[in-house]
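Hi R.,

As promised on Friday, here is the backbone we talked about, encoded as structure tokens. Could you run it through your design pipeline when you get a chance and send me back a sequence?
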């Protein structure tokens, strides 16, 4: 089937879904029409899956293929699509068919999972802790980003383990110069905060292994990973040092308007002008200041959970929560990156941590997620 025909079928399917959602009724005719389109699309998608021996996706299809109701059909369809999205381009299909879906393989997880079904992965170095977490949660598990950790802490009781430990997030900050003026004025420096993507354990290990500071592949005096300009240019195009590609970059306005499709689980990044990020106070904040801090919002990915998080995290008498950074210490013309941390309580959100410090990631295995 030609790609343009597939695209038209997909558009029709989306149109039918919107019509059903708006009317909140499912007519048998519309349901049948949707099921027919869905099955036609899967006929095209299944060979793509089979050719890669993607047993997880095939299991989903086999388990759900007899279901015809709209909501049930939607689950398997989106699950299949999101599995395809893990593969680079999937022969161009997901890029062609699903531009409006968030880049995420983790949407089957919930806030309840990080509260009740998560595990900690601690090691003496960030690289070792990240490697351990990746191995333990498996291909279909999730390691929590800063937005996910904030949401979990906001919903958890203060006696939950999430409030008993500082945590390392699968979120990173990258600083460098936008030489072509893609997201800032040409030649200006920017900060890019990534969630659910960023550094691989091997890329961080490479920085450890380079003994001399301020050399290619090593660390800066502030213990951040030195990047090449090519690496930073690739980030501006949506390709990160851990190998993730086609990552959408958003801005602060997108966060405030709720335009990020899956802020807790999606793979995405948000950019800020470096000078704007630098001007934010690296210190403790009172509530209003914290909730309106541009860097806090970028790190949180959404304002939805911030107030509840602040109220639980705040100092018992001083009523403040921290937000810390290194932007007053670093040279923004040298491309570099670091990993984000969340304090156990009012210490708050932090990137002012040495790359050589220990780490504690939190993750959920796929089989542990609430079904």
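Update: got your reply. Pasting your designed sequence below so it's all in one thread:
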């Amino acid at each position: 089937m030609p790609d343009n025909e597939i695209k038209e079928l997909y558009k029709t399917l989306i149109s039918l879904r919107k019509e059903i959602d708006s009317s909140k009724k499912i007519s048998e005719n519309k349901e049948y029409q949707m099921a027919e389109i869905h099955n036609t699309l899967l006929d095209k998608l299944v060979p793509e899956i089979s050719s890669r021996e993607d047993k997880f996706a095939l299991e989903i299809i086999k388990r759900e293929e007899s279901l015809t109701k709209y909501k049930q059909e939607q689950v398997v369809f989106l699950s299949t699509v999101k599995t395809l999205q893990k593969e680079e381009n999937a022969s161009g299909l997901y890029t062609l068919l699903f531009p409006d879906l968030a880049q995420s393989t983790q949407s089957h997880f919930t806030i309840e999972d990080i509260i009740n079904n998560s595990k900690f992965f601690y090691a003496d170095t960030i690289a070792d802790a990240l490697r351990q977490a990746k191995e333990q949660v498996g291909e279909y598990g999730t390691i929590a980003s800063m937005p996910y950790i904030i949401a979990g802490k906001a919903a958890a009781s203060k006696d939950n383990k999430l409030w008993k430990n500082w945590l390392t997030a699968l979120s990173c900050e990258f600083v460098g110069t936008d030489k072509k003026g893609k997201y800032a004025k040409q030649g200006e420096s920017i900060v890019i905060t990534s969630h659910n993507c960023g550094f691989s354990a091997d890329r961080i290990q490479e920085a450890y292994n380079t003994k001399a500071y301020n050399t290619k592949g090593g660390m800066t005096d502030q213990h951040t990973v030195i990047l090449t300009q090519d690496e930073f240019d690739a980030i501006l195009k949506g390709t990160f040092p851990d190998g993730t590609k086609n990552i959408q970059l958003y801005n602060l306005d997108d966060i405030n308007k709720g335009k990020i499709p899956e802020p807790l689980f999606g793979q995405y990044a948000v950019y800020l002008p470096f000078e704007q990020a630098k001007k934010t106070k690296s210190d403790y904040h009172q509530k209003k200041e914290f909730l309106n801090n541009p860097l806090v919002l970028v790190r949180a990915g959404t304002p939805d959970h911030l107030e509840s998080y602040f109220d639980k995290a705040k100092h018992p008498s001083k009523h403040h929560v921290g937000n810390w950074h290194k932007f007053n210490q670093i040279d923004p013309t040298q491309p570099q990156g670091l990993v984000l941390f969340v304090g156990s309580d009012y210490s708050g959100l932090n990137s002012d941590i040495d790359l050589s410090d220990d780490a504690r990631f939190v993750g959920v295995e796929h089989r542990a997620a609430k079904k």
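One thing I noticed while checking it: Residues 111-368 form one domain.

Thanks again,
M.
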